[in-house]
Amino acid sequence: MGHLDPESRLHAIPELRWLRTIVIERALTRGDYVLSGGVRSDYYIDKFRLFSDPAVLRRIARLFTPVIAELNPDLIGGTELGGAILATAVSQMTGISMIVVRKAPKAYGAFPDEYVEGPYAAGQRVLLLEDVVSSGRELLAAQQRLEALELDVTPYAIINRGLAPIKSLIQFALPRTDAKTEN
Predict the structure, then answer these.
(1) Stated pTM of the model
(2) Residue 36 belongs to what domain range?
(3) Do the domain assignments include residue 80?
């Protein structure tokens, strides 16, 4: 699968249209929100309203099949917390081992001060997954942590809100509005 404009793929692939629809129907709320990067938004996408349904999570995981076929990763990586849930589902679906990248190193256990959970080896290709990105700051920080360990990393998100230079299944942006959508 080439990296076509996400909106072009959206109209060409029914599964991506389904994803956009399920996001709007189940995960979208309108209001006044501060996003993880500090940016204000009049809508929020609550990915846990998607991930809590096993059938929806499996279907989202399957959407990464063409990406996996193209990249042929050795590992599926996930960022803490939503990316780890997604990586687990994709790992289960594909049989490819997974790792998790923490936001901060853990300060306990056998390997304190480490960011990465799970086995890996220098030179391995990692498909690093995130749920929703706005600025992409956390996903790019996780990519840098893995690259410092000599891993070849391709970051990918389910949804890019249009502010981050990161590949995603869909671009998702809504015009600012005063209208409220009940969920």
Answers:
(1) 0.85
(2) 6-171
(3) yes
